Amino acid sequence: MLTWLKKQRKSWKRSLLFIVLLALSAGAIWYFTRPESVEFSIIQAERRDIVQSLEFTGQVNAQERVQLRFAAGGKVVYLGAQEGDQVVRGQTLATIDRRTIEKNLEKQLSTYETQRRTFENSEDAWGDSFSSEEERRNAEKDQFALDRSVLDVEIQSLAIESTRLSSPISGLLVDSPVNVTGVNLAATDVFEVVNPDTLYFQLFVDEVDIDRIYVGQKALVRLDSQPDAVLEAVVSQIALKAGQSSSGTVFPVDLTFISDVSIEQQRLGMNGEAEVVLAERTAVLTVPVEAVVFREGGSWVEVMVDGERQQRSIEIGVESDEYVEILSGLNENDQVVLP
């Protein structure tokens, strides 16, 4: 009897140990395979205005902008405008000393007069015909010498004209190499005149996007120096020839400002960004971009129906950085799952 009880006790211990191990195993399996709780929120499809656009960098420039320099250096004897002054078309900006050129002109005129008289005397001696081949050759030499003296006089006349620098446009003198007379200028010193009424914003559009840009598109410009100011503009010109940049092949695109601008605030060379409007919709049904799952063959959202999440196929339209236009698949006030 005692032996039988010992055997039953051992059997009970083994069974208890097996049950405990089984419970621990089941608990471990449940712990490591339990579904994780997913946090999400519920929003409603709403109607709002939406704008689809592309952003590009660029800078302020001017359509009427000229850089002027003297053909040769010289001493400035007259200044017609100071940097920042308003100038009109044809106004003299500066004049350099032309006394040496005038003396050279007098010398060339004297040479011309000598050559002309020599030619006339020879012509009187030859009459209507030449008595020998040598006379014909001498006549040609005299003619060539006279022609050269005429050209020398014309060149010196042009040189005198080039001592006066005048503006071909009306505008502002934005850059001047001197502000006093008596200073020697080099041929590389530049006067720059800009018409402030022709300011525009120039973009550089990548070739993959250029087909989406057209003349007449609306745009919004924000300059780096004035991030809170939004300037309205419109695409006015698209270059037919590509250029190169660090990012690859680009096309210059000009935006004409609609908003009032001034060269004192929107200065030449200021950098900024332009948002070119591709499409815009008013009071259309939208959901946030992050609520949409884009898959090959369509787009999807999750909606709550009777307390359960269900996938629903949708058709989308205009897409902005934040919202997507819903063309079909959702109704206003549908509850959409937002991860």
Question: Which features does this protein show?
Answer:
four-stranded antiparallel beta sheet; 21 strands; Elongation Factor Tu (Ef-tu), domain 3; alpha+beta; 339 residues; OB fold (Dihydrolipoamide Acetyltransferase, E2P); single chain
Q: Could you characterize the architecture of this molecule?
A:
- The protein has 339 residues and is an alpha+beta fold.
- Helix content is 26%, strand content 42%.
- The chain has a six-stranded antiparallel β-barrel with strand order 2-11-15-13-12-16. It has a four-stranded antiparallel β-sheet with strand order 3-10-8-5, with no helix packed on it.
- The relative contact order is 0.18.
- The model has no long low-confidence stretch (mean pLDDT 83).
Please sum up the structure shown:
The protein has about 350 residues and is an alpha+beta fold. The chain is built from three helices and 21 strands.
List the helices and strands and how they pair.
Layout: H1 2-33, E1 41-44, E2 46-62, E3 65-68, E4 74-79, E5 86-87, E6 92-96, H2 99-126, H3 133-161, E7 164-166, E8 171-175, E9 184-185, E10 191-194, E11 199-206, E12 218-223, E13 226-238, E14 243-245, E15 248-257, E16 271-288, E17 293-295, E18 298-305, E19 308-319, E20 323-328, E21 335-338
Antiparallel strand pairs: 1-21, 2-11, 2-16, 3-10, 4-6, 4-9, 5-8, 6-7, 8-10, 11-15, 12-13, 12-16, 13-15, 14-15, 16-20, 17-18, 18-19, 19-20
Could you say how many structural domains there are in total? 3
Please report which band the strand proportion falls in: under 5%, 5-15%, 15-25%, 25-35%, 35-45% or over 45%. 35-45%
Strand elements, count: 21
Rg of Cα set = 43 Å
Instruction: Please name the CATH architecture of the largest domain.
Output: Beta Barrel
Structural class: alpha+beta
Shape: elongated
What is the arithmetic mean of pLDDT? 83
Query: How many helical stretches?
Result: 3
User: CATH superfamily of the largest domain, please?
Assistant: Efflux pump adaptor protein, beta barrel domain
Order of helix and strand elements from N to C terminus: HEEEEEEHHEEEEEEEEEEEEEEE
- CATH third-tier fold name of the largest domain: Elongation Factor Tu (Ef-tu), domain 3
The first-level CATH class of the largest domain is given as Mainly Beta
Spatial gap, N to C terminus? 69 Å
Percent of residues in helices comes to 25-40%
**Spatial strand order of the main sheet:** 2-11-15-13-12-16
